[in-house]
Protein backbone atom coordinates (compact mmCIF):
# COMPACT_ATOMS: atom_id res chain seq x y z
CA UNK A 1 0.00 0.00 0.00
CA UNK A 2 1.27 3.44 -0.90
CA UNK A 3 1.50 6.43 1.40
CA UNK A 4 -1.72 8.24 2.17
CA UNK A 5 -1.81 11.95 2.91
CA UNK A 6 -4.21 14.87 3.10
CA UNK A 7 -3.85 18.62 3.53
CA UNK A 8 -6.47 21.33 3.99
CA UNK A 9 -6.58 25.11 4.11
CA UNK A 10 -9.07 27.61 5.46
CA UNK A 11 -7.85 30.84 3.90
CA UNK A 12 -4.77 33.06 3.96
CA UNK A 13 -3.93 36.70 4.59
CA UNK A 14 -2.60 39.03 7.27
CA UNK A 15 -3.26 36.54 10.04
CA UNK A 16 -1.13 37.45 13.06
CA UNK A 17 -1.23 36.44 16.70
CA UNK A 18 -2.58 39.88 17.54
CA UNK A 19 -5.51 39.43 15.14
CA UNK A 20 -6.95 36.42 16.97
CA UNK A 21 -8.02 36.00 20.57
CA UNK A 22 -6.92 32.77 22.31
CA UNK A 23 -10.49 31.51 22.06
CA UNK A 24 -10.67 32.26 18.34
CA UNK A 25 -7.34 30.55 17.70
CA UNK A 26 -8.48 27.50 19.63
CA UNK A 27 -11.68 27.38 17.58
CA UNK A 28 -9.85 27.57 14.26
CA UNK A 29 -7.34 24.92 15.28
CA UNK A 30 -10.08 22.56 16.43
CA UNK A 31 -12.08 22.98 13.22
CA UNK A 32 -9.01 22.40 11.04
CA UNK A 33 -7.99 19.32 13.03
CA UNK A 34 -11.48 17.85 12.85
CA UNK A 35 -11.70 18.26 9.08
CA UNK A 36 -8.25 16.92 8.23
CA UNK A 37 -8.56 13.93 10.55
CA UNK A 38 -12.00 13.05 9.18
CA UNK A 39 -10.62 13.03 5.65
CA UNK A 40 -7.60 11.02 6.78
CA UNK A 41 -9.82 8.38 8.40
CA UNK A 42 -11.51 7.77 5.06
CA UNK A 43 -8.11 7.26 3.45
CA UNK A 44 -7.16 4.80 6.21
CA UNK A 45 -10.38 2.90 5.52
CA UNK A 46 -9.38 2.53 1.88
CA UNK A 47 -11.72 5.19 0.52
CA UNK A 48 -10.68 7.35 -2.43
CA UNK A 49 -8.87 10.66 -2.39
CA UNK A 50 -11.96 12.16 -4.02
CA UNK A 51 -14.14 11.07 -1.10
CA UNK A 52 -11.61 12.38 1.40
CA UNK A 53 -11.31 15.87 -0.06
CA UNK A 54 -15.07 16.21 -0.43
CA UNK A 55 -15.68 15.26 3.20
CA UNK A 56 -12.96 17.58 4.49
CA UNK A 57 -14.34 20.52 2.52
CA UNK A 58 -17.93 19.74 3.56
CA UNK A 59 -16.86 19.97 7.20
CA UNK A 60 -15.14 23.31 6.56
CA UNK A 61 -18.23 24.55 4.70
CA UNK A 62 -20.36 23.56 7.69
CA UNK A 63 -18.26 25.71 10.03
CA UNK A 64 -19.18 29.41 10.35
CA UNK A 65 -15.47 30.18 10.93
CA UNK A 66 -14.54 29.91 7.26
CA UNK A 67 -15.68 31.86 4.21
CA UNK A 68 -17.41 28.97 2.45
CA UNK A 69 -20.81 27.35 2.80
CA UNK A 70 -22.37 28.37 6.12
CA UNK A 71 -19.70 31.03 6.81
CA UNK A 72 -19.91 32.70 3.40
CA UNK A 73 -19.60 36.48 3.29
CA UNK A 74 -22.30 38.93 2.15
CA UNK A 75 -22.47 40.34 -1.37
CA UNK A 76 -23.33 43.97 -2.19
CA UNK A 77 -27.00 42.95 -2.20
CA UNK A 78 -26.73 41.24 1.18
CA UNK A 79 -26.85 37.75 -0.34
CA UNK A 80 -24.42 34.83 -0.42
CA UNK A 81 -22.91 33.69 -3.73
CA UNK A 82 -20.73 30.61 -3.48
CA UNK A 83 -18.22 28.90 -5.77
CA UNK A 84 -16.70 25.41 -5.57
CA UNK A 85 -14.76 22.88 -7.60
CA UNK A 86 -13.54 19.30 -7.33
CA UNK A 87 -11.19 17.29 -9.55
CA UNK A 88 -10.06 13.68 -9.82
CA UNK A 89 -6.40 13.20 -10.69
CA UNK A 90 -6.90 9.66 -12.03
CA UNK A 91 -9.44 10.53 -14.73
CA UNK A 92 -9.04 14.34 -14.97
CA UNK A 93 -12.80 14.54 -14.46
CA UNK A 94 -13.83 17.80 -12.82
CA UNK A 95 -16.96 19.58 -11.67
CA UNK A 96 -17.50 23.18 -10.57
CA UNK A 97 -20.20 25.68 -9.70
CA UNK A 98 -20.16 29.46 -9.51
CA UNK A 99 -22.44 32.07 -7.99
CA UNK A 100 -24.85 29.62 -6.38
CA UNK A 101 -27.21 30.67 -3.59
CA UNK A 102 -28.83 28.59 -0.88
CA UNK A 103 -26.87 25.40 -1.56
CA UNK A 104 -25.80 23.98 1.80
CA UNK A 105 -22.59 22.38 0.51
CA UNK A 106 -21.42 23.75 -2.84
CA UNK A 107 -18.62 21.17 -3.03
CA UNK A 108 -21.22 18.38 -3.04
CA UNK A 109 -22.94 20.12 -5.94
CA UNK A 110 -19.61 20.37 -7.78
CA UNK A 111 -19.15 16.61 -7.28
CA UNK A 112 -22.63 16.00 -8.72
CA UNK A 113 -21.81 18.13 -11.76
CA UNK A 114 -18.69 16.06 -12.30
CA UNK A 115 -20.48 12.72 -11.95
CA UNK A 116 -23.90 13.36 -13.42
CA UNK A 117 -23.45 15.84 -16.25
CA UNK A 118 -21.43 16.29 -19.42
CA UNK A 119 -20.26 19.68 -18.19
CA UNK A 120 -17.50 20.99 -15.95
CA UNK A 121 -18.81 24.37 -14.77
CA UNK A 122 -22.39 25.44 -14.06
CA UNK A 123 -23.39 28.83 -12.67
CA UNK A 124 -26.17 30.69 -10.91
CA UNK A 125 -29.74 29.60 -11.39
CA UNK A 126 -28.80 26.80 -13.76
CA UNK A 127 -26.51 25.24 -11.19
CA UNK A 128 -29.25 25.58 -8.56
CA UNK A 129 -31.76 23.88 -10.87
CA UNK A 130 -29.27 21.07 -11.38
CA UNK A 131 -28.90 20.81 -7.60
CA UNK A 132 -32.64 20.40 -7.13
CA UNK A 133 -32.80 17.78 -9.88
CA UNK A 134 -30.12 15.77 -8.08
CA UNK A 135 -31.43 16.20 -4.53
CA UNK A 136 -28.55 18.37 -3.33
CA UNK A 137 -29.65 19.92 0.01
CA UNK A 138 -30.49 23.62 0.26
CA UNK A 139 -30.59 25.68 3.45
CA UNK A 140 -32.67 28.77 4.37
CA UNK A 141 -31.12 32.23 4.32
CA UNK A 142 -30.93 32.21 8.11
CA UNK A 143 -28.50 29.27 7.97
CA UNK A 144 -25.92 31.44 6.21
CA UNK A 145 -26.32 34.42 8.55
CA UNK A 146 -23.32 35.08 10.78
CA UNK A 147 -23.07 38.17 12.96
CA UNK A 148 -19.36 38.64 12.31
CA UNK A 149 -19.83 38.40 8.54
CA UNK A 150 -22.73 40.83 8.78
CA UNK A 151 -20.55 43.37 10.63
CA UNK A 152 -17.86 42.95 7.96
CA UNK A 153 -20.42 43.72 5.28
CA UNK A 154 -21.93 46.63 7.23
CA UNK A 155 -18.53 48.35 7.26
CA UNK A 156 -18.36 48.52 3.46
CA UNK A 157 -21.85 48.00 2.05
CA UNK A 158 -22.44 51.72 1.44
CA UNK A 159 -19.20 52.07 -0.49
CA UNK A 160 -17.87 50.70 -3.76
CA UNK A 161 -15.16 48.83 -1.90
CA UNK A 162 -14.97 45.14 -1.18
CA UNK A 163 -13.24 42.99 1.40
CA UNK A 164 -11.46 39.71 1.09
CA UNK A 165 -11.05 37.68 4.27
CA UNK A 166 -8.84 36.85 7.27
CA UNK A 167 -6.93 40.03 7.94
CA UNK A 168 -6.97 43.39 9.63
CA UNK A 169 -6.53 45.20 6.31
CA UNK A 170 -9.73 45.55 4.24
CA UNK A 171 -7.90 44.76 0.99
CA UNK A 172 -5.93 41.73 2.17
CA UNK A 173 -8.46 39.12 3.26
CA UNK A 174 -8.42 35.82 1.41
CA UNK A 175 -11.21 33.46 2.39
CA UNK A 176 -11.40 30.03 0.80
CA UNK A 177 -11.34 26.44 2.02
CA UNK A 178 -9.81 23.50 0.24
CA UNK A 179 -8.37 20.00 0.47
CA UNK A 180 -5.94 17.80 -1.45
CA UNK A 181 -5.31 14.10 -0.86
CA UNK A 182 -3.64 10.96 -2.13
CA UNK A 183 -5.14 7.53 -1.43
CA UNK A 184 -3.64 4.05 -1.04
CA UNK A 185 -3.79 3.53 -4.82
CA UNK A 186 -1.74 6.65 -5.48
CA UNK A 187 -4.65 8.62 -6.90
CA UNK A 188 -4.82 12.33 -6.06
CA UNK A 189 -7.76 14.73 -5.84
CA UNK A 190 -8.43 18.38 -5.02
CA UNK A 191 -11.46 20.36 -3.88
CA UNK A 192 -11.96 24.06 -3.15
CA UNK A 193 -14.91 26.16 -1.95
CA UNK A 194 -15.47 29.85 -1.21
CA UNK A 195 -17.99 32.56 -0.47
CA UNK A 196 -15.91 35.09 -2.40
CA UNK A 197 -15.48 38.73 -1.41
CA UNK A 198 -17.50 40.74 1.09
CA UNK A 199 -19.58 43.36 -0.78
CA UNK A 200 -18.72 41.87 -4.19
CA UNK A 201 -20.78 43.11 -7.16
CA UNK A 202 -21.65 42.10 -10.69
CA UNK A 203 -21.77 38.36 -9.84
CA UNK A 204 -17.98 38.37 -9.53
CA UNK A 205 -16.34 34.95 -9.70
CA UNK A 206 -12.80 34.19 -8.53
CA UNK A 207 -10.28 31.44 -9.16
CA UNK A 208 -11.86 28.73 -6.98
CA UNK A 209 -14.17 27.16 -9.60
CA UNK A 210 -11.76 27.72 -12.49
CA UNK A 211 -9.99 24.43 -13.19
CA UNK A 212 -6.28 25.14 -13.51
CA UNK A 213 -6.45 28.44 -11.64
CA UNK A 214 -7.64 27.67 -8.11
CA UNK A 215 -8.12 23.92 -8.34
CA UNK A 216 -6.32 21.15 -10.25
CA UNK A 217 -5.47 17.45 -9.91
CA UNK A 218 -3.48 15.11 -12.12
CA UNK A 219 -1.98 11.76 -11.09
CA UNK A 220 1.04 12.48 -13.28
CA UNK A 221 1.96 15.50 -11.20
CA UNK A 222 -0.01 16.64 -8.16
CA UNK A 223 -3.23 18.01 -6.71
CA UNK A 224 -3.53 21.71 -5.85
CA UNK A 225 -6.04 23.89 -3.99
CA UNK A 226 -5.40 27.63 -3.80
CA UNK A 227 -6.39 30.50 -1.55
CA UNK A 228 -5.63 34.13 -2.26
CA UNK A 229 -6.70 37.13 -4.30
CA UNK A 230 -8.51 35.28 -7.08
CA UNK A 231 -7.82 37.76 -9.84
CA UNK A 232 -4.07 37.20 -9.48
CA UNK A 233 -4.43 33.44 -9.24
CA UNK A 234 -6.51 33.37 -12.42
CA UNK A 235 -4.06 35.53 -14.32
CA UNK A 236 -1.16 33.35 -13.19
CA UNK A 237 -3.07 30.06 -13.74
CA UNK A 238 -1.49 29.07 -10.44
CA UNK A 239 -2.69 25.50 -9.93
CA UNK A 240 -1.83 24.36 -13.44
CA UNK A 241 1.45 26.25 -13.42
CA UNK A 242 2.60 24.20 -10.42
CA UNK A 243 1.61 21.02 -12.25
CA UNK A 244 3.43 22.13 -15.40
CA UNK A 245 6.66 22.83 -13.55
CA UNK A 246 6.55 19.30 -12.18
CA UNK A 247 5.62 17.69 -15.51
CA UNK A 248 7.74 19.64 -17.96
CA UNK A 249 10.60 21.04 -15.88
CA UNK A 250 11.11 18.13 -13.51
CA UNK A 251 10.73 20.26 -10.39
CA UNK A 252 10.02 18.59 -7.09
CA UNK A 253 6.60 19.39 -5.64
CA UNK A 254 8.08 21.82 -3.12
CA UNK A 255 10.25 23.51 -5.75
CA UNK A 256 7.29 24.00 -8.07
CA UNK A 257 5.07 25.40 -5.31
CA UNK A 258 7.77 27.77 -4.08
CA UNK A 259 8.52 29.02 -7.58
CA UNK A 260 4.88 29.93 -8.20
CA UNK A 261 3.83 31.15 -4.74
CA UNK A 262 7.03 32.75 -3.47
CA UNK A 263 8.36 34.17 -6.74
CA UNK A 264 5.93 34.38 -9.68
CA UNK A 265 2.95 35.60 -7.67
CA UNK A 266 4.99 37.98 -5.56
CA UNK A 267 6.51 39.62 -8.63
CA UNK A 268 3.16 41.02 -9.74
CA UNK A 269 1.47 41.52 -6.41
CA UNK A 270 -0.37 38.27 -5.87
CA UNK A 271 -0.83 37.29 -2.22
CA UNK A 272 -2.01 34.02 -0.73
CA UNK A 273 -1.01 30.37 -0.71
CA UNK A 274 -1.88 26.83 -1.68
CA UNK A 275 -1.77 23.22 -0.57
CA UNK A 276 -0.38 20.42 -2.73
CA UNK A 277 0.16 16.66 -2.67
CA UNK A 278 1.60 14.19 -5.17
CA UNK A 279 1.20 10.46 -5.73
CA UNK A 280 4.18 9.70 -3.51
CA UNK A 281 2.47 11.34 -0.55
CA UNK A 282 4.68 14.42 -0.50
CA UNK A 283 2.97 17.55 0.81
CA UNK A 284 3.61 21.27 0.33
CA UNK A 285 1.76 24.14 2.04
CA UNK A 286 3.47 27.38 0.93
CA UNK A 287 2.07 30.89 1.38
CA UNK A 288 3.47 34.38 0.89
CA UNK A 289 1.06 36.12 3.28
CA UNK A 290 1.39 36.59 7.04
CA UNK A 291 -0.56 33.43 7.73
CA UNK A 292 -2.68 30.60 6.33
CA UNK A 293 -5.11 28.36 8.17
CA UNK A 294 -3.83 24.90 7.30
CA UNK A 295 -3.54 21.31 8.48
CA UNK A 296 -2.14 18.04 7.19
CA UNK A 297 -1.77 14.39 8.12
CA UNK A 298 0.27 11.62 6.50
CA UNK A 299 0.10 7.90 7.21
CA UNK A 300 0.18 7.33 10.99
CA UNK A 301 2.08 10.53 11.71
CA UNK A 302 0.72 13.17 14.04
CA UNK A 303 -1.68 15.83 12.80
CA UNK A 304 -0.12 19.16 11.85
CA UNK A 305 -2.19 22.31 12.35
CA UNK A 306 -0.80 25.76 11.57
CA UNK A 307 -2.00 29.35 11.33
CA UNK A 308 0.97 31.70 11.45
CA UNK A 309 4.21 31.78 9.48
CA UNK A 310 6.10 29.92 12.17
CA UNK A 311 3.29 27.33 12.24
Explain what this protein looks like in three dimensions.
With 311 residues, the protein is an alpha+beta fold. It has one domain (5-308): Glutamine Phosphoribosylpyrophosphate, subunit 1, domain 1, CATH 3.60.20. The protein has eight helices and 13 strands. Strands 1, 2, 3, 4, 5, 6, 7, 12 and 13 form a nine-stranded mixed beta sheet that branches. The two termini are 30 Å apart.
- Kindly report the average pLDDT value: 90
Q: Tell how many strands the DSSP assignment holds.
A: 13
Text of the CATH class: Alpha Beta
CATH topology: Glutamine Phosphoribosylpyrophosphate, subunit 1, domain 1
Count of domains: 1
- In this structure, how is the largest beta sheet organized? 9 strands, mixed
Order of helices and strands: EHHEEHEHHEEEEEHHHEEEE
Helix content: 25-40%
- What overall form do the CA principal axes indicate? globular
- The whole-angstrom Rg is 17 Å
Strand content: 15-25%
Quaternary status of these chains?
A: single chain
Count the helices. How many? 8
CATH superfamily membership:
(Glycosyl)asparaginase
Terminal residue distance: 30 Å
Pick out the low-confidence regions.
166-173
CATH-scheme architecture: 4-Layer Sandwich
Structural class, judged by helices and strands?
alpha+beta
Describe how the helices and strands are arranged.
Elements lengths: L4 E9 L8 H23 L4 H14 L19 E7 L5 E7 L5 H11 L4 E3 H10 L13 H10 L16 E2 L2 E6 L5 E7 L20 E3 L5 E6 L1 H6 L2 H12 L3 H15 L4 E6 L5 E2 L6 E8 L5 E5 L3
Parallel strand pairs: 3-4
Antiparallel strand pairs: 1-5, 1-6, 1-12, 2-3, 2-7, 6-7, 8-9, 9-10, 10-11, 12-13
Protein name: Beta-aspartyl-peptidase
Pfam families: Asparaginase_2
Organism: Pontibacter saemangeumensis
Amino acid sequence: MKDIAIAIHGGAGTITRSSLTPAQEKGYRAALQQAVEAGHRLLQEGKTALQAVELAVVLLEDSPLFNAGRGSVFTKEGKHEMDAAIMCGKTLDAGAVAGVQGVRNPVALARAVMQHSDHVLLSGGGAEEFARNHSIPFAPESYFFDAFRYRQWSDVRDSDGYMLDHTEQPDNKFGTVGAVAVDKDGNVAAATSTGGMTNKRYRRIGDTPIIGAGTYANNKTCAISCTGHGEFFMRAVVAYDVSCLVEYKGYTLQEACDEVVMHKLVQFGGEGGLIAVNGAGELALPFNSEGMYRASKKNSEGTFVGIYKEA
